[in-house]
Design brief:
Elements lengths: L1 E8 L9 E8 L4 E5 L6 H8 L7 E6 L2 E2 L8 H5 L2 E5 L10 H10 L5 H14 L15 H13 L5 E5 L7 H16 L3 E5 L3 H7 L2 E6 L2 E6 L11 H13 L44 H15 L9 H10 L23 H16 L74 H4 L35 H22 L7 H10 L9 H31 L1
Parallel strand pairs: 3-8, 3-9, 6-7, 7-8
Antiparallel strand pairs: 1-2, 1-4, 4-5, 9-10
Helix pairs in contact: 3-4, 3-5, 4-5, 5-6, 6-11, 6-13, 7-13, 9-15
The structure holds adenosine-5'-triphosphate.
Adenosine-5'-triphosphate (ATP) binds next to helix 1 and helix 9.
């Protein structure tokens, strides 16, 4: 589905490429951890999937579309097929949780009723329906990240990219985020997550892709954070750590078996390269870091540009294609598509879900409807929209208990104008114009058709549990390792314990421990906020114009 072919990407002339001759594939429904030292190219790889920057060499195709051939004006639509979650959340600070999530639907022209219904549904799924009216600074970091995830998935993306989504979170909040990502993946969304969190990677036992100075050095179907001892990736890291003086701080690799440097998946063996070759640096773009940041902010703002007030994106594409003289864009040398939105056949979605649901969700606490259970406090309290934002931490927080229902197939039928939405609106009946799919989410357990995509079996436990390090570790490494194992143990119990048994005290402690509201990390994100607000104002202005015109007609 996502294919990098000998991709090289440099930011500065003559500098070391951020990605260096990287060839790799990510399949539909994959859950991939992207690991590597700071500066190894993880974020660059994620951004390139989002088409933020093109390779100077090589080719990236997503769902058969060559991103290098994609017309600029199609990029915003393409990006709406992809959800993105950042370490610093990037919520709009002057919007409530509800409106942050609703914003992503408003920019595609969804109607008020659709937005209200869908946003409420998604907030329930991430356990935030009771905090819908809070502002980002009134909720914890973990809750902010869940809101950011809700925003990322509200339009049913085919791909979810997460750049260190647990980087600012404590273990409990991290575990909840991972539960959600696991569930999203089980619903068929490809999840690619850059992380430095050893415990999470080791606990999940998912595919691990490791970068080192822009090169792909490891691709394991079910990997741990540390490369297998003796492998080339392990040797590279030992050398790097010795050079940087980090070795004494770092734990020894957890396994003793040597595996090939790059171990392609069984079904990808033909296409995955055995190793990443060093390539001559191409002529890089002559842009400064600040220009790059501005470009990113601009590109993200493009995403926020309101779409034509048409129906769903697919419908809109078909409508445009049906118009006389409408463009049909050749987005790939091999594939001619009408839409840049990433869609795959219904049966494959169902098959992927059916195949994945049982195994992927199994480790997370679930309620009777197979929803991840969140530790939001007493289960006795009714779930309702919080209408008392003045006392942000005094209300009881109810657990999510809505049916999970991945409904990646639903499409929204947009109305001509996006309207301001309030989560306290008491109207609950969907409008007649709303898509039935939006009203009735499919049951996850429904078996898919025969076209089931084979999925590698999930390991019962990470292999690390049974394997001892081959060599005695230095004292310093043991010191570093203890907290890591504590964290691993904590995560394990967090995954396994039923939140019904968790106390409200624990919940509030967690909330207290992570209440700091992160400032935008970079000028790019600040610019994104500003551009998003500008877009918001443009929306408002256009609505005012529409209403004025209507009044004039009357
Ligand atoms: N906008 C930019 N302009 C110039 N160089 C950049 C830019 N973004 C990243 N780089 C450089 O590209 C290389 C890869 O950076 P990248 O952010 O992809 O690494 P990373 O693995 O995500 O690091 P981290 O774990 O610290 O987030 C680094 O050397 C970095 O300095």
């Amino acid at each position: 589905m996502i294919r990098f072919e000998h991709v090289t990407r440099s930011y500065a002339p003559g500098g070391r490429p951020a990605l260096d001759d990287v060839s790799i594939e990510f399949g539909r429904g994959d859950f991939v951890f992207l690991i590597g030292a700071s500066g190894s190219g993880k974020s660059t790889l994620l951004r390139m999937i989002l088409r933020e920057g093109l390779p100077q060499r090589g080719k990236i195709t997503v769902a058969g579309q060559n991103l290098g051939l994609m017309l600029e004006r199609r990029v915003p639509e393409y990006r709406r097929s992809i959800g993105m979650v950042f370490q610093d959340f990037r919520l709009l600070p002057d919007k409530t949780v509800f409106d942050n999530v609703a914003f992503a639907m408003r920019v595609i022209g969804a109607s008020r009723g659709q937005i209200r219904k869908r946003v409420t549904q998604v907030l329930k799924r991430v356990g935030l329906d009771h905090l819908a009216k809070r502002y980002p600074h009134e909720i914890s970091g973990g809750e902010q990240q869940r809101a950011a995830i809700a925003r990322a998935i509200v339009n049913n993306p085919a791909i979810l990219l997460a750049d260190e989504p647990t980087g600012n979170l404590d273990p409990r909040a991290s575990a909840e985020v991972m539960k959600i990502l696991r569930w999203i993946n089980a619903a068929g969304t490809t999840v690619i997550m850059a992380t430095h969190d050893r415990a999470i990677v080791d606990r999940m036992g998912k595919r691990v892709v490791q970068l080192h100075k822009g090169k792909l050095v490891r691709d394991e179907r079910h990997g741990l954070y540390d490369p297998p001892e003796g492998s080339e990736a392990w040797q590279i890291l030992v050398k790097e750590e010795a050079e940087s003086g980090l070795r004494a701080e770092d734990p020894a690799p957890l396994r003793t078996q040597a595996v090939p440097l790059v171990a392609p998946a069984e079904d990808e063996a033909e296409d995955s390269p055995a190793s990443a070759n060093s390539a001559a640096s191409p002529e890089p773009a002559r842009r400064s870091a600040s220009e790059e940041a501005t470009e990113q902010a601009h590109e993200q703002a493009q995403d926020a540009t309101p779409a034509e007030p048409s129906a769903s994106q697919e419908d809109a594409q078909h409508e445009r294609a049906a118009e006389p003289g409408a463009e049909t864009e050749e987005v790939s040398t091999a594939t001619k598509t009408e839409s840049v939105r990433i869609v795959w056949p219904e049966e494959q979605k169902a098959a992927r879900y059916d195949d994945a649901a049982e195994s992927l969700i199994s480790a997370a606490p679930m309620d009777s409807d197979h929803m991840p259970v969140f530790d939001n406090g007493s289960e006795d309290e009714p779930q309702e929209v919080d209408e008392h934002r003045d006392s942000p931490r005094s209300e009881p927080e109810a657990p999510a208990s809505e049916a999970p229902a991945p409904e990646r197939t639903e499409s929204v039928t947009a109305e001509p104008e996006a309207e301001e939405v309030s989560p306290v609106d008491t109207e609950t009946e969907p409008k007649a114009s709303e898509s039935p799919a939006a009203a009735a989410a499919p049951e996850p357990a429904t078996p898919g058709p025969a076209a089931l995509a084979p999925t590698a079996p999930e390991p019962a436990e990470p292999e690390s549990a049974a394997i001892k390090p081959a060599a005695p570790e230095p004292l310093a490494s043991k010191r570093r390792r203890e907290p890591d194992q504590d964290r691993l143990a904590w995560l394990t119990s967090a995954f396994e314990e039923q939140s019904a048994s968790s106390t409200r005290t624990a919940s509030s402690e967690t909330a207290e421990s992570s209440t700091a509201v992160p400032k935008p990390k970079s000028s790019a994100s600040e610019a994104t906020y500003a551009d998003s607000r500008r877009t918001e104002e443009q929306l408002e202005a256009s609505k005012r114009g529409i209403f004025r015109r209507r009044r004039g007609k009357r």
